[in-house]
Write a structure and sequence with these properties.
Layout: H1 3-9, H2 23-28, H3 45-50, H4 56-68, H5 70-81, E1 93-96, E2 105-108, E3 113-114, H6 116-120, H7 122-129, E4 133-138, E5 145-149, H8 150-166, E6 174-178, H9 184-194, E7 198-201, H10 208-218, E8 222-226, E9 229-231, E10 234-236, H11 238-251, E11 258-262, E12 280-282, H12 283-286, E13 299-300, E14 304-310, E15 318-323, H13 325-338, E16 346-349, H14 356-368, E17 372-376, H15 387-395, E18 399-402, H16 404-412, H17 422-427, H18 430-433, E19 442-445, H19 452-462, E20 469-471, E21 505-509, E22 520-527, E23 536-537, H20 541-549, E24 556-564, E25 570-575, E26 579-582, E27 585-588, H21 589-597, E28 602-612, E29 616-625, H22 633-646, E30 655-658, H23 672-679, H24 696-703
Parallel strand pairs: 4-17, 6-7, 6-8, 8-11, 11-12, 16-17, 16-18, 18-19, 19-20, 29-30
Antiparallel strand pairs: 1-2, 3-13, 4-5, 9-10, 14-15, 15-23, 21-22, 22-24, 24-25, 26-27, 28-29
Helix pairs in contact: 4-5, 8-9, 10-11, 13-14, 16-19
The structure holds ligand 6R9.
EC number: 6.2.1.1
Protein name: Acetyl-coenzyme A synthetase
Catalytic activity: acetate + ATP + CoA = acetyl-CoA + AMP + diphosphate
């Protein structure tokens, strides 16, 4: 048995059996919280009984098999649950993950011939799902909606695929997609996949410069967009942004012949859209004229499926490349088990398809399972903070997957300023309690560590203390979930992503790259490969190796810190680039943030390190208060005391900086680079702030710097 297996086996000694009264109830009733580590939350008996993985025992059995015989484990799933035109060659997986032994190479199911669009649509239709709803679409404006069954979706996909072929898009060609959350976005992804084209979706919130940069990098045959979108009360003219990006990319020698534009009527009429004759084509004028069937382009499992650009800590965005077969098997399997998927589920993921979460868990993972998926165009707090629960009730959503940042912002919208405990949140969350939410069965969280207090609010208030939360840790690079609860299988601990998914071997290493055992913390790496792993950075295999495989030779380096507790649970502590070292104590920014946010009057916190004469680094905390709570010296002290109490005196913030809002990217990630500059008063070095969701918060922060 490897070390790793032993860690997971420690599960066997967990207080087992479902249905125990969770410690959580004690916590919300105001009893002292001993330690997060000891805070087990058990799935109910009813939930576990019906779950795909009903016990730690069952998990362990499958997990062991997946590690001892990955080829057998994954090829079993691949051949029984997917359609292959031709089976892969002798080797299920061939890999070199050690830079010391040559170029990094990962291949799964090589020689296998398939098509992911066929597996999402045709295969499910043949299996009897033709009339099942594939997509429910909810407009930004309450009351406007649409839906497509699996067979209707296939017809739409085929029409677009045929159009793309007619303008010369072939297997291997790149297609840039700059669309908001309309049904046309998953339709476009699937149409590209059907003909073997490589989609590169750019989140329709990126600036024209960022879009141009991506166009120049991947040189697409066509750009697909829409004229405008409404997000909340604002209308955003996407086509204008694309126009500017195309001017910019032409300057860099890349000119685009066709810009296919969908008329998003509810946002902007055709007549008011700027137009370049000869290049711009209305989707509605051409696509519906094409046949509703389209032959599939059969591709190799290792042919590219998509490129998705993601930012690194330095340099230009990296084009993460995923291929077809392994990604297909992995996203489908992770979706099924981590959400305990049942055919009757209605699934809603609030992520945009412009991010990896939207690729793997709006489009491919759910569709491969034949699921009914809700796609929501707008913002979660429009027209008010109850919108999510309105949508949940309207479509009887059973699985709701979102990000901690949304949970915290909705939690903050409780109307009572003086929340004194989690129980009071329960009583004062009218935006939530106004709706029934009784269809909900499983909740999910992704994007950053979810702090235990937000976890509790999500669990108690949103889920009525009845729905397990799958806190899924993964990355653009990993393609799918890596460390995640399997709801029903084992007790959760609020804030812990728990245990690895099948086939995943997380290891924690020290600075020297030595694996550390037992209860420990360090850098999170992964040993071995899994089918959903990215294969390269587009056009820069060297950077791929340097960033991910050279820091700790022999392992994939995630860039995240992680600790493992005495029960083998994994606690992600944030990017290691964000680790602060105070007087020799290593402190994860996420730990301090979590402590601050547990203060009833703190809505959100972001912590960065600043130079400190004596301690090396000091802790600088930006704090957003619950609506209506005034800043005060007393509160400042009380926040610092909370951190001292929860982590230790060494972790007490040196500075609390009042923050009406935090600088976030449009996907909700806090831009720490900017906070670090503000904290160190290097105000002339803020850099590019145009990618922020609300650039105005920067000025507000500067104004409050010394108050
Ligand atoms: C899926 C996604 C990846 C980074 C990752 C980590 C953070 C994501 C998390 C989490 C703690 C979770 N992250 N999920 N941290 N718990 N459940 O977000 O991909 O945009 O590439 O970000 O996000 O730091 O390294 P991506």
């Amino acid at each position: 048995t490897t070390n790793h297996l032993r860690h997971v086996e420690s599960m066997a000694s967990l207080p087992s059996g479902a249905g125990k009264i969770s410690h959580l109830n004690a916590v919300i009733l105001g009893e002292a919280l001993a330690s997060e580590e000891n805070d087990f939350v058990f799935p109910s008996d009813d939930f576990s009984r019906q779950a795909l993985i009903p016990s730690p025992h069952k998990y362990l059995e499958m997990y062991k098999r997946s590690i001892e015989d990955p080829a057998g484990f994954w090829s079993g799933i691949a051949s029984s649950e997917f359609y292959w035109k031709q089976k892969w060659g002798d080797q299920v997986c061939s890999e070199n993950l050690d830079v010391r032994k040559g170029d990094i190479k990962i291949e799964w199911f090589k020689g296998g011939i398939t098509n992911i669009c066929y597996n999402c649509l045709d295969r499910n239709i043949d299996a009897g799902l033709a009339d099942k709803i594939a997509l429910y679409w909810e407009s930004n404006e309450p009351g406007f909606d649409a839906h497509l069954t699996y067979s209707q979706l296939l017809r739409r996909v085929c029409q677009l695929a045929n159009y793309l072929k007619s303008i010369g898009v072939r297997k291997g060609d790149a297609v840039i997609v700059y669309l908001p959350m309309l049904m046309e976005l998953p339709i476009t992804m699937l149409a590209c996949a059907r003909i073997g084209a490589v989609h590169s979706v750019v989140f329709a919130g990126f600036s024209s410069e960022s879009l141009a940069q991506r166009i120049v990098d991947c040189k697409p045959k066509v750009v697909i967009t829409c004229n405008a979108v409404k997000r909340g009360p604002k209308t955003i003219h996407l086509k204008d942004i694309v126009d500017a990006a195309l001017v910019e990319s032409a300057k860099n020698g890349i000119s685009i012949d066709v810009c296919l534009t969908y008329e998003n009527q509810s946002a902007l009429k055709k007549e008011s859209t700027k137009w370049q004759e000869g290049r711009d084509v209305w989707w509605e004028d051409v696509v519906p004229k094409y046949p509703t069937t389209c032959d599939v382009e059969w591709v190799d499992a290792e042919d590219p499926l998509f490129l998705l650009y993601t930012s690194g800590s330095t340099g230009k965005p990296k084009g993460v490349l995923h291929t077809t077969g392994g990604y297909m098997v992995y996203t489908a399997t992770t979706f099924k088990y981590a959400f305990d998927y049942k055919e009757s589920d209605v699934y809603w993921c609030t992520a945009d398809c412009g991010w990896i979460t939207g690729h793997s868990y709006v489009t491919y993972g759910p569709m491969l399972n034949g699921a009914t998926v809700v796609v929501y165009e707008g913002t979660p707090n429009y027209p008010d903070s109850g919108r999510c629960w309105d949508i949940v009730d309207k479509y009887k959503v059973t699985i709701f997957y979102t990000a901690p940042t949304l949970v915290r912002s909705l939690m903050r919208d409780g109307d009572e300023a003086s929340c004194i405990s989690n129980l009071v949140y329960t009583l004062k969350s009218p935006y939530v309690t106004r709706y029934s939410r009784k269809s909900l069965r499983v909740l999910g969280s992704v994007g950053e560590p979810i702090n235990p207090s937000a976890w509790r609010w999500f669990f108690n208030v949103v889920g009525g203390s009845r729905c397990p939360i799958s806190d899924t840790w993964w990355q653009t690079e990993t393609g799918g979930f890596m460390i995640t609860p399997l709801p029903g299988a084992w007790p959760q601990k609020p804030g812990s992503a728990t245990f690895p998914f099948f086939g995943v071997q997380p290891v924690i290493v020290d600075e020297k790259g030595t694996e550390i055992d037992g209860e420990c913390s360090g850098y999170l790496c992964v040993k071995g490969s899994w089918p959903g792993a990215f294969r390269t950075l587009y056009g820069d295999h060297e950077r791929y190796e340097t960033t991910y495989f050279r820091p700790f030779p022999g392992y994939y380096f995630t860039g995240d810190g992680c600790s493992r507790d005495k029960d083998g649970y994994h606690w992600l502590t944030g990017r290691v680039d964000d680790v602060i070292n105070v007087s020799g104590h290593r402190i994860g920014t996420a730990e301090v943030e979590s402590a601050l946010v547990s203060h009833p009057q703190c809505a959100e916190a972001a912590v960065v390190g600043v130079e400190h004469e004596v301690k090396g680094q000091g802790i600088y905390a930006f704090v957003t208060l619950v609506e209506g709570v005034p800043y005060s010296e007393e509160l400042r002290k009380s926040l610092i005391l909370t951190v001292r109490n929860q982590i230790g005196a060494f972790a007490a913030p040196d500075k609390i900086h009042w923050a009406p809002g935090l600088p976030k990217t449009r996907s909700g990630k806090i831009m720490r680079r900017i906070l670090r500059k503000i904290a160190s008063r290097q105000l002339d070095e803020l850099g590019d702030i145009s990618t922020l969701a609300e650039p105005g918060v920067v000025d507000q922060l500067i104004a409050l710097a010394d108050s």
